[in-house]
Amino acid sequence: MARGLGFHEAIVEELTAREGEASASESGVPLRNPSSLVVLGEGLGLSQVVAELLVRLLTTRLETEPTLVILVGFTEVQRRSVLAHVTRRRQATHGAAMADLPTVGEVDAAVGSAERSKLYAAGGCLFVTTRILTVDLLQRRLSPRRVAGVCVGSAHRMKDDSGEAFCVRMFRGQAQGSGGSGEAEARGEGNDGNVRGFVHAFTDEPTSFAGTFKVEHVMKALQLRRVFLWPRFEARVQEYFGSF
After folding, report:
1. Is the pLDDT of residue 199 over 80?
2. 189: helix, strand or coil
3. DSSP annotation of 26
4. What is the tens place of the pLDDT at every residue in 97-143?
5. What share of residues in the chain are helix, strand, coil (percent, to 5)?
6. Could you tell me the CA-to-CA distances from 234 to 40, 197, 231 in Å, in that order?
7. Residue 183 burial (C-beta neighbours within 10 Å; 0-12, 13-18, 19+)
């Protein structure tokens, strides 16, 4: 990567690299993007990384379907920080034309079901509470086939029985009541299952992974294929901070 771009962009490059030539889902259906766990050193700018990823996705997916990215499991502080970073980037790049760009916002208890349906249909990037995402997937208000991918925050907290893990299973069409089963699901053609979309999980609490097979448990719970470790001593991080 060229000097001066920073390691945040390097992480985004890794996450958005196309997977077609090397690997595929377990069902044999090629994934559009591989799914990954990103573990950053504390204080290295997790919110900026997520914001850069959203900007990239919004830029590259404007003319593609599906165009909706769901974010779940992030803290309020992280949500506010990501939204602020995305807004600044878009203002700098598009100015007044921002009004014509896909929505980047939040869906919480204050947003009614009818309005949520409209937001989902419009595309963009939406922070959604785990409870609301679960309900909307179960009630078919949101079809996983309309979602380009899912970003999961606080990855170090994820377990098989966490709400976010259940949402990922519904996204993949593997949870009871999700609508995908049998031969059609194996081909990625279930009623709702989406095996082509990405799932990326993020954390900046590496010490939380201390313990036997903790990383493996998180990756299994969220069905992640790769792990990217970005400690403070990583060469590109050192190069970035050394340029100031």
Report:
1. yes
2. coil
3. T
4. 555 567 789 999 999 999 999 999 988 999 999 999 999 999 999 99
5. 45, 15, 40
6. 10, 29, 5
7. exposed
